[in-house]
From TrEMBL:
Protein name per its UniProtKB record: ELMO3 protein
Record's function text: Involved in cytoskeletal rearrangements required for phagocytosis of apoptotic cells and cell motility. Acts in association with DOCK1 and CRK. Was initially proposed to be required in complex with DOCK1 to activate Rac Rho small GTPases. May enhance the guanine nucleotide exchange factor (GEF) activity of DOCK1.
Keywords: Apoptosis, Phagocytosis, SH3-binding
GO biological process: actin filament organization; apoptotic process; cell motility; phagocytosis
Organism: Anseranas semipalmata (Magpie goose)
Length: 719
């Protein structure tokens, strides 16, 4: 019979005593339980004792958390939290260095427990810690234990960070700024400051003033990975707590100090593996940097802004040497305006008379204009080639540069989450981001050229604009998932992922989604293949029995004579002969020539055929080569030469003749037909398994029964 739900079986240990195995009644007061345990070991003053877990964090058992005790838990009888807090409170004031050190070490460990922390804080224990830090000259181990205990006590939020004295904060700052200081003390000091920064604007300004960015960069360059991590944590805390203007200034200063290149070389590509915490900080740094583009992204173009109009005009001037602006031109204002509108249309603006209207949509707003200008100024040859190449294409086939740039900027903002708040747990940063200044703009330069390349591969028109950009989005996201370490590598991989590759990947994923690539389904495909190939063979032979009308091609390539060929219903003889124009399916008796199938020796195709090798035939016709085949027959090895009317007929006849010769069907049509038939057959057979996942491994076959007595014995059946 199972024990009641409010009773748990546990073990209780004590140093120097035999453990007790008891059934703990959760309804019984904890004080009574402790009294029974102490009585069993003949211990007086049960109120001075408490229970705590023997393993893990060794949390004290209280009335509030006793419900978490599970069957089989091992507890330990120890000094009660109030007694322990009193003892350590006295111990850290001892003049004996060893006692003080041991007390602080035990305090740092026990302070993780909320019950003990509350008892110690209620005794004004934090005041003692402040005194050790502010007034004392302790360094090394004592100071490290003190700061660790302080951190653990503050984690419970019993005391506000804003109550810390200026003297205490300055002392913590001094530990960070000292060169000759124990690394563990500096790590703890950095952690304290990191926790302090988000709590109030006053503390943020104080830390920002006292701990310079240069000092944090110095800590980032050390070989101690933990110190490096804590320095990065404080830097991120300062960036997140700063105003937009302060954040922009800090990021600009970090850029001047080449922080990205340092991170790329010494942290991302260091010999030590990158931990989850550092990965998160790098993600936040990337996110903060990319979000600097948010202001421009959310700002629409102002058609009355002289600066913005000049940027827009610079795009046109960089692409075209306008006749209207050449020296000595006497064009009227109307003529000049007409030329400008024409050039803006060639640039791909939808509203060519007032291109500023295209940039009124925000997002992407002015960020799209910034990207276009950056592309035109930093890669002028690629910019000119893009614009001029498309302005010379047929109407509707040109790839509109401006419209594509605006949409691409929006796509990049969505992929890179520009303008979105940082996640508190994400770790997805791009290594190549830290290897390149002006990352967003340089990425745009690569991707806008990708748009033009994909446009040509898809042979797109203006109606296909959204489809092309959808493919480009997929190319970018798939390549980013590979985490390329540099923009050059990204460029190589994204250009290799062309439109045909995207189609193949989509097909494969669709098959996976339909579970047609599951192991049992693949096995079923292999079992169905022979049956379906036989079906295709029968279809090919039936087609040969129906026959086909062929044209004879003379040495002058004149297609002036017709002849017909068909297989006899018993598949033993090929009948053929000349026919008149207009006869489509002559009876088999009207075809005078015959070739017994048994006399057929081989099938030749393409360049192997004798009628494609004739010297008098002049220049080889590629179309004829693709449709030519010949049958070699009889002992003398005569040839019957064919030129199929279509590629489809060529595939059917070559497959059919191979079947008659006892060989495999090799045409591309065979594979296409087989895929179609397999797909249909599989869907029909799996119809009853819709929405049921198919396991990769078949379930185990059960063992045979120990006896077969349950079988009916027919020999004893009644007569």
């Amino acid at each position: 019979m199972p024990p009641p739900k409010d009773v748990v079986k546990i073990a209780i240990q004590m140093v120097g005593a035999i453990p007790q195995l008891i059934e703990l009644q959760q309804t019984k007061p904890l004080a009574s339980v402790l009294k029974d345990v102490c009585d069993a070991w003949s211990l007086p003053n049960a109120e001075r004792y408490a229970l705590q877990y023997a393993d893990g964090r060794q949390t004290y058992i209280t009335e509030s958390n006793r419900g978490d005790i599970k069957n089989g838990s091992i507890l330990r009888l120890t000094t009660s939290p109030d007694q322990e807090a009193e003892r350590l409170y006295s111990g850290i004031q001892s003049n004996n260095v060893d006692v003080k050190t041991d007390s602080l070490k035990k305090l740092a460990s026990l302070s993780q427990d909320v019950t003990f922390a509350q008892e110690f804080i209620n005794r004004n224990g934090l005041k003692l810690i402040f005194y050790i830090v502010e007034e004392g000259n302790d360094t090394g181990e004592i100071l490290a234990h003190t700061l660790k205990a302080f951190m653990e006590l503050m984690e419970h939020d019993f005391v506000s960070w804003e109550t810390l004295s200026a003297a205490f904060i300055k002392k913590i700052v001094s530990y960070v700024n000292m060169n000759a200081m124990d690394a563990s003390v500096q790590q703890l000091s950095l952690s304290i400051l990191e926790n302090m920064v988000p709590t109030s604007r006053l503390l943020f300004e104080l830390v920002k003033k006292e701990v310079t960015v240069d000092r944090l960069l110095t800590h980032l360059q050390v070989t101690n990975t933990q110190l490096q991590l804590k320095a990065m944590a404080l830097l991120i805390a300062l960036l997140l707590a700063a105003t937009d203007a302060e954040r922009r200034d800090m990021m600009e200063y970090l850029r001047e100090k080449n922080i990205r290149q340092f991170i790329h070389k010494n942290i991302i590509h260091s010999s030590e593996p990158l931990g989850d915490e550092m990965a998160h900080y790098l993600y936040v740094l990337q996110s903060v940097s990319l979000n600097l583009h948010e202001r421009r992204m959310r700002t629409s173009m102002d058609p009355y802004s002289q600066e913005q109009r000049e940027l827009l005009q610079s795009l046109r001037q960089a692409a075209f040497e306008s006749e209207s602006e050449s020296p000595g031109s006497n064009f009227s204002t109307e003529r000049r305006r007409s030329l400008c509108a024409k050039e803006f249309r060639k640039l791909g603006f939808t509203n060519n008379s007032n291109p500023a209207e295209d940039l009124r949509r925000a997002p992407p707003g002015l960020l799209a204009l910034d990207n276009m200008v950056y592309f035109s100024r930093h890669t002028p040859s690629a910019y000119s080639r893009f614009v001029l190449e498309n302005s010379s294409r047929e109407d509707k086939h040109e790839c509109p540069f401006a419209r594509s740039s605006i949409q691409l900027t929006l796509i990049l903002c969505e992929i890179l989450h520009v303008g979105e708040p940082c996640s508190e747990t994400a770790q997805a940063f791009y290594p190549m981001f830290f290897g390149q200044d002006h990352f967003f703009e340089e990425l745009f330069c690569i991707c806008i050229q990708l748009v033009n390349k994909t446009w040509k591969e898809m042979r797109a028109t203006q109606e296909d604009f959204d489809k092309v950009l959808q493919v480009v989005r997929e190319q970018i996201t798939r390549t980013l998932c590979l985490k390329p370490t540099s923009l050059e590598l990204f460029k190589t991989r994204v250009n290799a992922l062309n439109y045909s590759e995207i189609l193949k990947l989509r097909q494969t994923e669709r098959l996976h989604q339909e579970e047609t690539l599951a192991v049992p389904v693949l096995e079923l495909r292999e079992r169905l293949k022979p049956e379906l190939l036989e079906l295709i063979r029968q279809q090919r032979l039936l087609r040969l029995c129906e026959g086909t009308l062929f044209r004879k091609i003379s040495s002058r390539r004149r297609q002036d004579k017709l002849w017909y060929c068909r297989l006899s219903p018993n598949h033993k003889v090929l009948h053929y002969g000349d026919v008149e124009e207009g006869v489509h399916s002559p009876p088999i008796e009207s075809l005078p020539e015959k070739i017994p199938v048994a006399d057929m020796k081989a099938l030749l195709i393409g360049k192997e055929c004798p009628h494609t090798k004739e010297k008098s035939s002049g220049k080889q016709n590629k179309d004829v080569l693709e449709l030519a085949f010949s049958i070699v027959y009889d002992v003398e090895e005569y040839c019957l030469n064919f030129i199929a009317p279509t590629r489809y007929e060529f595939c059917l006849w070559t497959d059919g003749l191979n079947v008659l010769l006892g060989k495999e069907m090799t045409s591309e049509r065979t594979q296409t037909d087989l895929d179609v038939l397999l797909s249909m057959e599989l869907k029909l057979r799996l119809l009853d398994l819709e929405n049921i996942s198919i396991p990769d491994i078949p379930p185990p076959v059960p063992k045979p029964p120990s006896n077969l007595n349950f079988c009916y014995d027919f020999s004893h059946a009644e007569q």
